[in-house]
Amino acid sequence: MTADLEIGENTLVIAAARPELGFRTGRPLSFSARTRRTELTGSLVPALIDIEALTLDATLPETGIAGSGSASTVIIRDKNEDPIYQPFQTDLSAEFANGIMQLSGPLRTSRSQREIADLQMTLNLVELDGEASLRSRDLVFQPGGFQPTALSERVRGLLSNARGRLNAGASLLIDGGDLSGTGFVEVRDFGFDTLRVGAVNNINGRIDFDELLELHTPPGQTVTVGEINPGLPLRDGEIGFQILGPDAAIIERASWPFAGGTLLLNQSEWTISGTSDIVEITAREIELSRLIEVFSLPDINANGTVSGTFPVELRGANVFIRNAVLRADEEGGTIAYTGSVADAASQADERVDMAFRALRNFEFSVLEVGADGNLTGSMMITLELVGKSPDVLGGAPFAFNIGVDSELSKLIRSSQSITGTDWLAEVRNGSLTGDDETDDEDSEAPAANDNPSEP
């Protein structure tokens, strides 16, 4: 049996197998209904619903329908071509009084039959006005166990190997059969692996949706991130954002403490399921001494801070830093290289010896650290250094240009050191402030220049 109903501007299609209807006259009229498999479709229903068995026993007094009913093995499927959620299953019980239906039941995953949420709904059967709520159980994700893909296939590849806890809720308003609603997702110590930015751990926070069916949030959503590693380990961050729908978001702000300073991600658009995004990073007052620790560079001591702004492109599993330049802050600083490489190199060339002697105690007024390339692959790191050493040539100004081409991520993971002797050093006559040059031979030193070597 099939029934096509028009209810206001909405439609409801009921297709029932082997329906059994019973009536008993009297005051009030009594009736009962039994069906086998029943399908509910149409614009009034926000999903595709299959019911294995349906029962209803009720009366029709003047105040409206009264009685009880049940629906067993109800399968709920997303009607979108690209489903947002996986099929879910429930068994529902209903109570009717004064024309109002009270409906409730647990929601389960269709495959594993795990109970994940509880559903409740109140509906005026005449006006089709009411409200519904869905509140999740405490969902615990474990590697090799329960995973977000049991809830949505869309997160496959985005939230792999999930761990931690998640709670969610939805409040739906039914107005003449039309649905709208709000909701939230709350995570505790949540983590996952993703192709784009690597492992993400210890996420905590709550996301509120103002248009749940559109997966849209108001601005100002905030979560904290314990650890993320897109090629560099970042810890204890905070991200502010707005979700615009299932595929797009705006990163309003993001910050991480890094090497004694701060890394800031400026406002940018983010394609949630995309393969390429460009964001702008601002580094503020990064301490050179801490930066040396991050990159595990031995035999180097430095003081001072650097800052700068540069674009970063995330393309697939690659993170490309585009012509980043970090410049020393106004006060300058000091740098000292005391490694044994200097001794061997100095024996071969007097100019190189002078350069390394200067670097053992170097006071810089200009420092620029450059980076360009794939953070997870080949990266060119450059250093421009201008200053003086009180121990060499009476404090005459030096200028250094240093370049290292390396696989930076491997260097960081293995704590290898950069051991090349690839220094270009030149001594500038006179001061860096524009004073006249001198003719003193002792104040001149030719450059030493080798090609950059692999670490």
Describe this protein with a few key phrases.
455 residues; mainly beta; 29-stranded antiparallel sheet; 4 helices
How does this model look, in words?
This protein is mainly beta and 455 residues long. The chain has a domain at 286-455. Helix content is 7%, strand content 57%. Helix 2 (341-348) runs antiparallel to helix 3. The protein starts with a strand and ends in a 28-residue tail after the last strand.
Radius of gyration: 34 Å
Largest sheet: 29 strands, antiparallel
Report the mean per-residue pLDDT as an integer.
83
Give the beta-strand count. Answer: 29
- Categorize the overall geometry: rod-shaped
Strand content: over 45%
Counting helices, strands and paired strands, the structural category is mainly beta
Which segments are poorly predicted (pLDDT under 50) over 5 or more consecutive residues?
A: 411-455
The number of helices is: 4
For the termini, the CA-CA separation is 76 Å
Portion of residues within helices: under 10%
Task: Describe the SSE topology.
Blueprint: E1 2-7, E2 10-16, E3 20-24, E4 29-35, E5 38-41, E6 48-60, E7 66-77, E8 88-97, E9 100-109, E10 115-124, E11 129-136, E12 139-141, E13 160-175, E14 178-194, E15 198-209, E16 221-228, E17 234-243, E18 248-258, E19 261-265, E20 268-271, E21 276-287, H1 288-294, E22 300-303, E23 305-315, E24 318-328, E25 333-337, H2 341-348, H3 350-359, E26 362-374, E27 378-388, E28 397-407, H4 408-414, E29 423-427
Antiparallel strand pairs: 1-2, 2-5, 3-4, 4-6, 5-6, 6-7, 7-8, 8-9, 9-10, 10-11, 11-13, 12-13, 13-14, 14-15, 15-16, 16-17, 17-18, 18-19, 18-20, 19-21, 21-23, 22-25, 23-24, 24-26, 25-26, 26-27, 27-28, 28-29
